[in-house]
Design brief:
Elements (H helix, E strand, L loop, with lengths): L3 E7 L4 E4 L7 E15 L6 E11 H10 L5 E14 L5 E14 L47
Parallel strand pairs: 4-6
Antiparallel strand pairs: 1-3, 1-5, 2-3, 3-4, 5-6
């Protein structure tokens, strides 16, 4: 099984391109900075991060172009794809990308990321919302009425 789930912040705005041909397809590339859990840099004690390249296609890419911006915390799921190519110096360069199947905001409307609109692309059960998840509770996003919740 090839399944990946990541939560991290966008390093920069997604880069969008369109394929050539009759039925052009949107392709978005972006990088997530994902903290390594429990690991700290030797010198300053700050968390270390992996910078993971992600690629989305079609409607997901258009969503990324329209709503995703540098600094936003995103929850992404998909699969790992590896590859290689020869650079202009003739050296083999190995690549690892996440092919995005689902992407959604991991912060609620009022939290970081600088976006004033909150929109979820998928129906995935993952909902971030606080930086401190130690209490085990998720925040309720804006616009959800109490009547629809399974508890009171």
């Amino acid at each position: 099984m090839n399944r990946v789930i990541l939560m991290g912040r966008l390093v920069r705005d997604p880069e969008i391109r369109y394929s050539q041909g009759e039925n052009s397809l949107a392709i978005a590339r972006y990088t997530l900075a994902v903290d390594r859990r429990g690991r700290r840099n030797q010198g300053d004690g700050q968390p270390t991060a992996d910078f993971i390249r992600c690629v989305s296609f079609g409607q997901r890419a258009e969503f990324a172009e329209k709503y995703m911006h540098q600094g936003m915390r995103m929850l992404v799921s998909g699969s790992i794809q590896t590859g290689s190519y020869q650079n202009k110096d003739g050296q083999t360069v190995y690549t690892t990308d996440i092919i995005v199947e689902d992407q959604e905001f991991a912060d609620s409307k009022g939290q970081g990321g600088g976006s004033s609109s909150y929109s979820r692309e998928s129906s995935s059960p993952f909902m971030g919302g606080t930086d401190d998840l130690s209490e085990g509770f998720m925040s309720i996003p804006d616009g959800v009425e109490d009547e629809g919740l399974p508890f009171t």
